Amino acid sequence: MVKFFMKKFLSKGPEGNRTSVGQLAGVLGFLSNAILFIGKFAIGVMAHSVSIMADAINSLTDTISSVLTLVGFKIAAKPADKEHPYGHERFEYISGFLISLIMTFVGWQFLQASFEKILQPEKVKLNWLVFVVLLLSIAIKVWQSRMYQSLARSIQSKTLQATSQDSLNDVLTTVAVLLSAIVEWFTGWRVDGYVGFLIALYIIYSGIKMVMEFIAELLGQRPNEEELEQMNALLGEYPEILGYHDLLVHNYGPQKRFASVHIEVDDRWSLNQAHEVINQIEKDFLEQLDVSLVCHIDPVAVQDADFQEKRRTIEAIVANVDERLRMHDFRVINPESISFDLVVPKTVQLSDQELADTIRLKIHQRYGNQKIEITFDHNYLLPE
């Protein structure tokens, strides 16, 4: 069924495909979770089991999550407008954040109900229907996880990947409910409240974890290592440039990625020559990595002997202070004024002020009373 619908949706282009696949996941999730909720809640009420009802409410939150998934992908697909020039794709993160809050609240409510069941335990009324429904719900959740994972891979969606993992985790909670029912069936031990309590804790834990993940997405987090390696590898394919630094990456949704970087070039290049090279780099980034890149040109006086001597000497001074420091954007503004940027890894213990004072002192000892301007860079995207 999923493959059938995928064939229908894949012809709509990248943006239409993403929206359609996300909505397909929402519809299939809504229908399957609604069936699970109705079935589990019915047998939970019939059996007077708080653990089964807690598991049912967990399915209800998944049903609500599916609705929010539908709404989230629909709004995220809206084109850019005057108020939102970068589009609306980040709404996918907002819908995930709301799902996480709902999950956490429901978990807290059932934590209280389960605690009361521990203090005042009741006999659970079990029959063959309870076991049949729980076994069917496990099978549906396994299918659901595989369905979400398949759709997530097709559009590279972190939201659907998280939903797939959540469905797989739900299998564990339902297995726990089934085991508690088996234990009470054969031994008469009233463990229903304890299992419900553990499931509620799990729901709260999952909710808080998802809240933190979506907050990180909304705040803007570091790209994954694979993306950075691809960008560094591509920038390393241009022998005509001297180097690059200050790579910054940010996104406005799963398909709206932007980056900027400083490219070092020979200062003897004409403006047109530099433009052609930079333009090709930006074009390759868009075509190969789907990243809108903006390049800043840093001219380097490679043939100026005095410039190169000062650069090598100050690089040695910087390395002597701490070999993990990296210098770039070196400029000799006039015979008595030098400026450069200094990349400071997070592992360096000295403060920026301590580094500046030490480096300035050593440069003054070598070149006399020169004006030294140091710009500190704490960007950790490029290799150290």
From TrEMBL:
Family, as annotated: Belongs to the cation diffusion facilitator (CDF) transporter (TC 2.A.4) family.
Cation efflux protein cytoplasmic domain location: 223-299
Organism: Enterococcus asini ATCC 700915
Protein name as annotated: Cation diffusion facilitator family transporter
Entry membrane topology: Multi-pass membrane protein
Main location: membrane
Transmembrane segments: 21-43, 49-73, 93-111, 126-143, 193-212
Keywords: Membrane, Transmembrane, Transmembrane helix, Transport
Record-linked InterPro entries: Cation_efflux (IPR002524), Cation_efflux_CTD (IPR027470), Cation_efflux_CTD_sf (IPR036837), Cation_efflux_TM (IPR058533), Cation_efflux_TMD_sf (IPR027469), CDF_Transporter (IPR050291)
